[in-house]
Design brief:
Elements lengths: L8 E4 L5 H13 L5 E6 L2 H13 L5 E4 L5 H15 L2 E6 L11 H23 L3 E10 L24 H17 L12 H18 L1 H7 L2 E6 L21 H12 L12 E3 L2 E2 L4
Parallel strand pairs: 1-2, 1-4, 2-3, 4-5, 5-6, 6-7
Antiparallel strand pairs: 7-8
Helix pairs in contact: 1-8, 3-4, 4-5, 4-6, 5-6
The protein binds NADP nicotinamide-adenine-dinucleotide phosphate.
């Protein structure tokens, strides 16, 4: 019989390019050959091409289609994992929409939040029930996701007793409506739509971690958000003239792989936003 500790089932969303592809590569290299690493992508064609790239490197990812804007697609993938393996050990929610430079925030904010925030929730809702004892779940966020980056008037939307995932989703829908109505700045929202979005992702991880703390502690499950730092990808390149300080996707993936493969005895970090292997302050 296969030793369960050696045979991990892992999955990365948005993994056909950029950081996600590097995360799949890193997991394939870090985990034992008995493990199964799912490279997921919204496009079957782009996902399978990315798998071919990694197979040429001697790695053996499996492809699974997931469009995080489509609950049916996310749930079908979770059912497939459950049917094949009975559960999952490592989930990295990395998929994200890009911000397009020459498009007004009012025109792109709804799609951006639907992918990056509601999509993250779809992944959490589908895969958290499949987490095995000792599993690790990582949401790729950013250091923008600290509450410190938000006007104090808005903190109660993302922090406090009684906060729920639904409450965070509603706060982000309100934010989308305010951007579209042109009232966001007056209400204290920052200009850069990535900031409320990343704060929403980190707040969701915190809510899930604190709400399930007793059970997840008992079962050795670690749940965190992570900032990869500036990574040289097609998403970041249009925003910076000088990318010489940016990490390559493979370099940036290392700390996230560390987080996603922490040994069974690790109890920390838990429910944190982690960068360079250390928690960042939330407030
Ligand atoms: N790059 C940085 O400097 C940086 C810094 C901090 C945080 N991050 C975070 O790191 C993560 C990856 O960023 P990246 O730079 O690698 O971005 P990227 O190159 O744009 O890659 C994003 C991936 O997400 C996929 N995706 C988009 N919409 C999707 C959907 N609806 N369902 C499933 N997949 C979808 C894309 O697929 P397609 O190819 O089909 O579009 C692509 O594979 C993001 O969460 C980002 O916010 C990046």
């Amino acid at each position: 019989m296969t030793d369960a500790r050696e045979r991990k089932i892992a999955l990365v969303t948005g993994a056909n390019q950029g950081l996600g592809l590097a995360l799949v590569r890193g997991l394939c290299q870090a985990l034992s050959g008995k493990s199964v690493v799912y490279l997921t992508a919204r496009s079957e064609e782009r996902g399978r091409e990315a798998c071919t790239v990694l197979r040429r490197e001697g790695l053996k990812p499996e492809f699974l289609q997931i469009d995080i804007t489509d609950a049916t697609s996310v749930q079908a993938a979770a059912r497939a994992i459950h049917g094949r393996h009975g559960g999952i050990d490592i989930v990295i929610q990395n998929a994200a929409a890009r911000i397009t430079k020459d498009v007004a925030p009012a025109e792109q904010v709804a799609g951006f939040i639907d992918t990056n925030n509601h999509g993250t929730l779809r992944v959490l809702e589908a895969f958290v029930p499949l987490l095995r004892d000792g599993s690790r779940l990582v949401v790729v966020a950013s250091s923008f996701g600290s509450l410190r980056n938000l006007d104090a008037r808005l903190h109660e939307k993302f922090e406090g007793a009684g906060l729920t995932l639904e409450g965070i989703a509603r706060a982000l829908d309100d934010y989308v409506a305010a951007v579209r109505a042109g009232t966001a700045a007056a209400a204290g929202w920052p200009d850069w739509i990535n900031v409320p979005s990343k704060i929403g992702q980190v707040a969701s991880v915190r809510v899930l971690a604190s709400g399930n703390k007793a059970e997840f502690r008992r079962r050795g499950i670690l749940l965190n958000a992570a900032c990869p730092g500036l990574v040289d990808t097609e998403a970041s390149r249009p925003w910076f003239d000088d990318m010489s300080k940016a990490a390559s996707p493979d370099e940036a993936a290392r700390d996230l792989i560390w987080l996603a493969t922490l040994p069974p005895a690790a109890a920390e970090p838990y429910g944190e936003l982690v960068r360079n292997r250390r928690p960042l302050p939330w407030q």
